[in-house]
Amino acid sequence: MLNLQTCSASDVYDWSRSFYLQHVATKTSFEETSQKIVKAVFESFRQADASPQFALVRIFRLVEDESLPADLLQYADPEHKPYVALMGTYGVETEWQNRQLSKTHKLMSLGPERSPMMQAVYEQIGLDHKNPPSKEATPDQMLQQFSDGILAYFYVPKAADSPYVPGHDFVTKYGIHSVVGIGYPFLSGAFYFLLAFSRSEITRQSATAFAEITAPFSTLLALQENQPLWVSSQS
Length: 235
What we know:
Elements: H1 9-23, H2 30-44, E1 54-63, H3 70-73, E2 83-91, E3 107-109, H4 116-125, H5 139-147, E4 154-156, H6 168-173, E5 178-185, E6 191-198, H7 204-210, H8 214-222
Antiparallel strand pairs: 1-2, 1-6, 2-3, 4-5, 5-6
Helix pairs in contact: 1-7, 1-8, 5-8
């Protein structure tokens, strides 16, 4: 169990690297790996009373029209390109544990009309200027290259006061204090980001510690780039 209010950056890295070692040899879809990651984050980070620290954890990824499964094609609109699709989701509500049950976030625009949160995520994580590891690198070399990169992350200390956190009812009902996120681009030109909505206050130091998950999780997701994108695409 990890508590961001008490654990160190090395504690977070060691935990995420252990997760990496458990799953690095597994070839599966990007969606399934994303789901494993968000579930692990939700279940492993706990408050002092052992209740989940995060009300909701999600992974989104840049996608193209031709890669969308049938259940997402109905939301695609060329005028709103590019899109990010919900790839993994886990939270305190049962309907938050399956991307297909999401009502409003299955496919979102990153075009000119992108939300303030999407704009802030894109800018704070710096998804437009990072250099992803070489495709020829071994998994451990990729992990090292991700670890050597600039550690940037998304951070909102007070969700209730922030224009970057939409959904006042969500924030109030679930007691969301802070939001943290990480992400990275891939050689394919796509990128992903993970967002975690915390029910306890997260300091800047704790947000920096949380960002230590970036290298192990980015490596695992990058290793799935040659695998099917969606669970339904697997043979």
